[in-house]
Design brief:
The protein is α/β, with parallel strands linked by helices. The chain is 52% helix and 7% strand. A five-stranded parallel beta sheet has the order 3-2-1-4-5. Strand 1 (81-87), helix 5 (94-104) and strand 2 form a beta-alpha-beta unit. It is elongated, with a radius of gyration of 44 Å.
């Protein structure tokens, strides 16, 4: 069993970073040529195994030279180390990419071949996939760590398969995988010292992603309805479609209401400050009017009260400024 070493990973990553560093001698290169070179070097999809480039590399590889683990780790191998990793790679995600990164960075000079099983094989051995084989092939070949993609990859390894593709090491996680003839598909490779252990990314797998979609089914159906998909495309009934569209409208109204409240919240401090300033002026005016001039108010009120109580034709009993006043005289009754 082989383990990945951090020193090898760091060394390989350093080499990759140097390739991406532009030297001063390139200053005179035109921008068009520079972009073209970058595109060819880093933005091209990995070729398939049957294409001319991988075929030529495979034919020129001297597989008679056995590359040991020590030789590969030391960087003294006479040729690139051919590492093979395989899988279904359905819904290609970060867990897949990290496994391929580990395989690519296992040794200083690695040529990474990635095998992808076809639909018939995966459906029989693992179950239904979300993406078909062509989508899975192309998803893998656009990963930057991959040098070559093998379509219709076998489920088990034979000596003939290893020799045909001149594979030095097979990279995979260390969990035993059962098959019809053995309890661990990778058992023989481990005995030969041709197995390279990689680490899985916990909590990230195709099965986890599918489980999330199934769990939140209504949410994703509503999402796609809002994006313009029809009920027929999503395989939902007419009533279900109307129900979900109504829920979308209600959510839109809630979002609008929340935005209005947020806007009010942002303006709240300004409104309170203005109200405080205005209220202070009102209170000052109130105090000035009702407390600083109370006698004038009392005198004005007293005069109005006397006029109201005095019958018409009765002479004034005094001025408005007097504190006390006599009651009105009684009129003599006429005989």
């Amino acid at each position: 069993m082989l383990d990945l070493h951090e020193s090898s990973i760091n060394q390989n990553l350093t080499t990759m970073s140097r390739k991406r560093t532009r030297s001063r001698s390139e200053d005179n290169v035109t921008s068009n040529n520079y972009v073209h070179n970058l595109t060819n070097a880093y933005c091209s999809a990995a070729p398939f195994s049957e294409e001319a480039g991988p075929t030529k590399i495979r034919e020129e590889c001297d597989y008679s030279v056995k590359i040991t683990l020590e030789m590969a780790r030391s960087g003294k191998a006479p040729r690139p180390v051919r590492v093979y990793a395989d899988g279904a790679f359905d819904l290609f995600h970060q867990g897949h990419a990290k496994v391929l990164m580990q395989a690519k960075a296992a040794f200083p000079n690695v040529y990474l071949i990635v095998g992808v099983s076809n639909d018939k094989m995966v459906h029989e051995m693992k179950g239904r996939t979300v993406m078909d084989e062509e989508e899975r092939y192309n998803g893998v070949r656009h990963c930057r760590y991959v040098d070559e993609v093998l379509r219709d990859a076998p489920w088990e390894y034979t000596d003939e398969f290893l020799e045909t593709h001149k594979i030095d090491f097979v990279a995979h996680d260390d969990i035993p995988y059962e098959s019809e003839n053995t309890e661990d598909t990778y058992g023989e490779l481990k005995k030969r010292g041709m197995f390279l252990t990689t680490q899985r990314t916990e909590g990230v797998s195709t099965s986890d992603i599918v489980a999330r979609i199934v769990r939140d089914y209504d949410i994703y159906v509503r999402r796609n309805l809002a994006r313009g998909y029809s009920a027929k495309e999503l395989n939902v009934s007419y009533i279900k479609e109307k129900t979900l569209r109504f829920q979308n409208k209600m959510d839109e109204l809630k979002d609008k209401g929340r935005k209005v409240m947020d806007t009010i919240g942002e303006r709240r401090d300004d409104i309170l400050m203005k109200w405080k300033d205005e209220s202070r002026e009102v209170i000052d005016s109130f105090l000035e009017y009702f407390f600083k001039r109370p006698m004038r108010i009392w005198q004005e009120s007293k005069g109005k009260l006397l006029k109201a109580l005095t019958p018409p034709g009765t002479p004034d009993s005094g001025t408005d400024d007097e504190e006390d006043f006599s009651p009105p005289k009684k009129l003599k009754r006429l005989v």
